[in-house]
């Protein structure tokens, strides 16, 4: 079967990474060998319970960052804020939320790379500048941040954190223009994928990079405005979804009301495809597509592209369950819970030995022997990073008695680093960058292995009919076609820095 898919018009300014430098990303000490979520942001304008709404919103975004959490509230005159290391429910209690009085707030949950997991980098970052207070929360990564930081340092700036966000604050503070124009000037200097919430004593500013790489949505609850990385955070506080924030857009909310503006013209739309495949919650909608439904379509398409007969279909929890249901519905092969996730694993602070690492995956996942024993199993997963976790899961199923394990991955091979806020391993550790599909099959000990095609992915997500180049998606980690410049002569940054 062949597929003829329209992916929009190829743009002249597509940038191919030459591979001259490497993403350093996460170290190899991670037990679970998965891509790391970036961060989550949540903002409220015009509600007396801004802090408690932020608490619930951030709780809904917890999957986007477990390292630290913070909320900053403005009461029209002063800021009140609290940040801490840990989960939202660990950082905040009733008294702390009650002390955050004001009707405007921004909040943040953060995943960080191992080297900078410290309170100083927890967001929102709060600054004093000539016109008052400034708080910033961001999701994403500024690729040219090291270059800008170096230039600022050479001209006298002193930085207190390693966060990108501080660079934006310095650029704004140095401008002679009023705050909104200064922010626009600063944003125009940044290259990368980012969603920013900025708050002064009397203003909330919301901005998305010119490609819309990172998700950001707007909602309303009563007269108040709410902004969040994912729509699931709107649902939890009873807010109505209004729309996605557009590439290059800048919204200003203050005593004059709500003003739609932009800091730059939109470029090729390139929303992160991994949000659909893996990161975002299945009950969120992105760009008009529900995540659960999109993942089901990926599973269904997978069945059309690389059918294999079997007795049961199972998905690696949690992100691949929807796709496994789609594969099962398309083929008629029963969907079964062949793998169970232990929800209480939590974070681990030990550097495990190889032996404990092998055990580590059993802490997180169990195969259900009564379900898989004697069965030919189709195992659906969202991606293969280094290959180590995939091999461990296949072996779990075999140890539980599966007679065959056929692996179907609902994304194309992950070959290239991310520069836009996803913390990926060093490129040399990405198994798809140096092995063929057959070699990967052998490595993960599967009976067969297949990946979803880029066309299948685009069509499943729903961008097929949009006419946008590549369905309006970033697929750079699969096809090495980056929407922005990523090489700044060695002065560039990859991964996640929110
Ligand atoms: S490179 Fe991959 S992970 Fe990064 S923004 Fe693009 S699609 Fe998402």
Automatic annotation (TrEMBL):
Pathway listed: Purine metabolism; IMP biosynthesis via de novo pathway; N(1)-(5-phospho-D-ribosyl)glycinamide from 5-phospho-alpha-D-ribose 1-diphosphate: step 1/2
EC id: 2.4.2.14
UniProt GO molecular function: 4 iron, 4 sulfur cluster binding; amidophosphoribosyltransferase activity; magnesium ion binding
Domain Cyclic nucleotide-binding: 158-260
Chloroplast keyword on record: no
The reaction(s) this protein catalyses: 5-phospho-beta-D-ribosylamine + L-glutamate + diphosphate = 5-phospho-alpha-D-ribose 1-diphosphate + L-glutamine + H2O
Active site (catalytic residues): 39 (nucleophile)
Superkingdom per UniProt: Bacteria
Pfam families for the chain: GATase_7 (PF13537)
Chain residues that bind [4Fe-4S] cluster: 272, 418, 474, 477
InterPro entries assigned to the protein according to its UniProt record, in alphabetical order: cNMP-bd_dom, GATase_2_dom, Ntn_hydrolases_N, PRTase-like, PRTase_dom, PurF, PurF_N
Alphabetical keyword list: 4Fe-4S, Glutamine amidotransferase, Glycosyltransferase, Iron, Iron-sulfur, Magnesium, Metal-binding, Purine biosynthesis, Transferase
KW Magnesium (keyword) present: yes
Coiled coil regions in record: none
Single GO biological process annotation from the record: purine nucleobase biosynthetic process
Function field: Catalyzes the formation of phosphoribosylamine from phosphoribosylpyrophosphate (PRPP) and glutamine.
Sequence similarity: In the C-terminal section; belongs to the purine/pyrimidine phosphoribosyltransferase family.
HAMAP family hit by this protein: PurF (MF_01931)
Name of this protein: Amidophosphoribosyltransferase
Gene from which this protein is expressed: purF
């Amino acid at each position: 079967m062949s597929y003829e898919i329209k992916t929009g018009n190829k743009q002249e300014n597509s940038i191919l990474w030459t591979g001259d430098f490497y993403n350093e990303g996460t170290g190899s000490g991670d037990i679970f060998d998965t891509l790391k979520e970036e961060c989550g942001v949540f903002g409220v304008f015009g509600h007396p319970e801004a802090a408690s709404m932020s608490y619930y919103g951030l709780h809904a975004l917890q999957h986007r960052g477990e390292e630290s959490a913070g909320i900053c509230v403005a009461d029209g005159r002063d800021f009140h804020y609290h940040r801490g290391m840990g989960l939202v429910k660990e950082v905040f209690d009733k008294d702390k939320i009650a002390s955050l009085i004001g009707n405007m707030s921004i909040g943040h949950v953060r995943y960080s790379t191992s080297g900078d997991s410290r309170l100083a980098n927890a967001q929102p970052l709060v600054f004093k500048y000539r016109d008052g207070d400034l708080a910033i929360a961001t999701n994403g990564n500024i690729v040219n941040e090291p270059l800008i930081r170096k230039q600022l340092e050479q001209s006298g700036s002193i930085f207190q954190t390693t966060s990108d966000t501080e660079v934006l604050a310095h650029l704004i503070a140095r401008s002679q223009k009023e705050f909104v124009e200064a922010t626009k000037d600063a944003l125009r200097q940044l290259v990368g994928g980012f969603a920013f919430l900025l708050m002064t004593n009397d203003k909330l500013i919301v901005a998305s990079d010119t490609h819309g790489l990172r998700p950001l949505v707007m909602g309303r609850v009563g007269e108040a405005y709410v902004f969040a990385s994912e729509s699931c955070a709107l649902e939890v506080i009873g807010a109505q979804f209004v729309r996605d924030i557009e590439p290059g857009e800048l919204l200003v909310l203050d005593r004059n009301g709500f003003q739609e503006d932009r800091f730059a013209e939109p470029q090729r739309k390139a929303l992160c495809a991994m949000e659909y495949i893996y990161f975002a919650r299945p009950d969120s909608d992105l760009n008009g597509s529900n995540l659960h439904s999109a993942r089901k379509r990926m599973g269904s398409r997978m069945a059309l592209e690389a059918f294999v007969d079997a007795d049961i279909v199972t998905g690696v929890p949690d992100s691949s369950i929807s796709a496994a249901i789609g594969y099962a519905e398309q083929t008629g092969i029963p969907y079964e819970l062949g793998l169970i996730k232990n929800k209480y694993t939590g974070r681990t602070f030990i550097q495990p030995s190889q032996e404990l690492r092998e055990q580590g995956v059993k802490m997180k996942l169990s195969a259900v022997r009564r379900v898989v024993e004697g069965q030919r199993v189709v195992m659906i997963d969202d991606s293969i990073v280094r290959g180590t976790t995939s091999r461990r899961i296949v072996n779990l199923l075999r140890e539980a008695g599966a007679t065959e394990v056929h692996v179907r991955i609902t994304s194309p091979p992950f070959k290239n680093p991310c520069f836009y806020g996803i913390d990926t391993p060093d490129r040399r550790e990405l198994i798809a960058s140096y092995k063929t599909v057959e070699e990967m099959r052998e490595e993960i000990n599967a009976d067969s292995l297949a990946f979803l095609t880029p066309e299948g992915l685009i069509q499943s997500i729903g961008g097929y009919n949009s006419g946008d180049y590549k369905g309006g998606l970033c697929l750079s980690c699969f096809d090495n076609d980056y929407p922005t410049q990523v090489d700044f002569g060695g002065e560039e940054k990859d991964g996640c820095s929110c």
